Fold this sequence. Notes:
By secondary structure, this protein is of the alpha+beta class.
Amino acid sequence: MPQHAFRFQHHVPVRFRDIDVAGHAHHSAALVYFEEARAAYWRTVVGRAGLGEIDYIMAEASVVWHKRVLWPQTLDVAVRVSRLGKKHFEMEYEVVGEGGELLQSGRTVQVMYDYRDGTTFRIPDEVRAAVEALDGPFGPGGVPGDG
């Protein structure tokens, strides 16, 4: 999907430690870039900043590598909620290099989770409202639409 469809971006530097013996970012770094953008989204959009306020658990992740990620540069990681269910939400990511090229893209699924009790729960109304204000409205099936 084109980056203009993403309303939230987070800048992530490629670190020297990300680079593997092939001279580009190790394949696992993509998930770290997604994680940093997801955490920034949760802080900024949802308003939950501390570790104790992370009330979801990762259920699924997929990554597509389009081009090599080289060091040094700062990446623009775009993230959006693409599906909003009753207990889960899906996020999409696009990682763009300083030259404007798409380097990585992906998707994750998070489930609302109470770490103390070890149980899932419905997405709270205030979280749903914050996500819908930026990435909604969400129509039938929890996908963006006319609501």
